[in-house]
Write a structure and sequence with these properties.
233 residues; 4 strands; binds flavin-adenine dinucleotide
């Protein structure tokens, strides 16, 4: 469990030679040299030179060059509401804890949204309600109802865990959409943690793993948070 009760995120896989791989992909497009020679050349030892080319290529929208990079995260303690939002991203791969195969044996774990948790009376009601759901779920499974059917009563608040993988192009897209203040707080925190875990090892990505307004230079949302000027205003 994390201190603030939100997602626990760990980057569990990323290529060792991320920059070199992207650099080789970028140079291959513009060079008569072979990809192997490019990969082994002196420039591919120089982070500054590689970054210069890479940022130019990404800015021009040549995103296939960053699709070669795949990263994976171990994610725990997110709500089913949040995981449902995450799985809408079609270029991601998921392996999520099954509510069919993993039967709850006691009170299921759940997340209470801050807006409810801040109100003591509503928080208590929420917790009692989760207790009632749990009691009914356990009654169903004790009476022989399979977990895959008993789960019909479990709420959006029920906690889940997954391994999620995606390529760098999708990672940037995910950050652009889900770091925006229009995204719900829980998924914003989750995606921020994914970005932080990655930029800790690859600091050069900080410029890309940002809300979309930072990349666009303006806000394209109807309801703006005011961070950037709204498009057309
Ligand atoms: C603030 C916010 C509010 C939202 N509210 C709602 C809501 O009320 N209801 C709702 O249903 N969803 C909602 N969503 C989800 C949203 O509609 C998208 O499903 C989700 O954000 C995934 O984004 P995506 O499709 O751009 O990305 P991905 O699925 O990650 O795809 C990345 C990109 O690939 C391309 N792509 C992928 N698949 C196709 C395809 N089949 N055809 C053409 N191009 C494709 C597109 O360019 C796309 O942007 C919301 C999302 C946000 C961030």
């Amino acid at each position: 469990m994390t201190k603030d009760g939100y997602a626990q995120v760990k980057l569990i896989s990323k290529p060792e030679n991320m920059l070199k791989t992207i650099y080789t992909a970028c140079r291959t497009c513009y060079s008569s040299d072979s990809p192997l020679n490019i990969y082994e050349c002196d420039n591919a030892q120089d982070n500054e030179k590689m970054l210069k080319l890479i940022s130019r290529v990404i800015s021009s929208g040549h995103y296939s060059t960053i699709e070669h990079i795949q990263v994976s995260f171990a994610i725990s303690n997110i709500s089913r509401a949040c995981s449902h939002q995450l799985v809408r991203h079609r270029h991601m791969s998921f392996s999520q804890k099954s509510q069919r195969y993993v039967k709850e044996k006691e009170q299921f774990e759940y997340l209470i949204p801050d807006s409810i948790a801040e109100n003591q009376e509503l928080k208590e009601k929420f917790e009692n309600f989760m207790g009632e759901i749990s009691a009914f779920y356990l009654e169903l499974t004790e009476k022989g109802i399979p977990a895959e059917d008993a789960r019909a009563v479990l709420p959006n608040a029920a906690s889940t865990s997954m391994v999620a993988s995606l390529n760098l192009r999708e990672m940037i897209h995910l950050a652009n959409l889900r770091l925006c203040t229009r995204a719900q707080k829980e998924i914003r925190i989750l995606v921020k943690r994914m970005c932080d875990a990655l930029t800790e090892e690859e600091p050069w990505l900080k410029d890309y793993l940002v809300p979309k307004c930072e990349r666009l230079g303006y806000c394209d949302e109807d309801k703006s948070c005011g961070r950037k000027q709204v498009k057309g205003n």
